[in-house]
Predict the structure.
Amino acid sequence: MEKYKNLQIGILALQGDYECHKKQLNLLGVKNSYVKLPEHLKKIDGLIIPGGESTAIIKLIDRFDLRDAIVKFSQTKPIWGTCAGMILLSKEIEDNQAEVQPLQLLDIDIARTAYGRQVFSFETQLILDLNGSQTECPATFIRAPRIKRVGEKVKILASYNDDAVLVEKDNIMASSFHTELENNTKLLEYFLDNFLVDKVNI
Ligand code: GLN
């Protein structure tokens, strides 16, 4: 799409479903690249942290010296974390037996895998509150994290059974569900339009 022509989006590609995000970006004709090392952050305008296994992803973030680099990146550029990506952006993880040290870039607390195990994965239609209009969007919950606390200044864009499942604050967006498994690019477009297009094209 013409409005995305100046964008270059990075996808953290250490573990998880990063290929699905690549497919969605390709559907919209958005240039994208995988981020595996700190220097890969230099050429991108925004970062997607995919779903997967947060314990594995955080270990690899630290092994490849990406922690400080991602925190620094977030000070000027947007990040969208989905599922495990949301866990990594959170402030605190409840009952954190695996001792995952999150990046603490978003003022929310999380309970991991709180919608049940893999066999209890489910698909649903969510109503997203995007730019003041209500938009229906298919969403898949796979061993999804539950948001247990939403910081005062964090905006809730969608809920499921009274729990926030899509939130944003400043240049950080996080969703507990997946939308990248389908061809519906609504949420990706929201991220690109609201967090990037205006800023990069100026
Ligand atoms: N439950 C997983 C974790 O804690 C996240 C699942 C997902 O990303 N689909 O890392």
In short: The domain at 2-197 is CATH 3.40.50.880 (Rossmann fold).
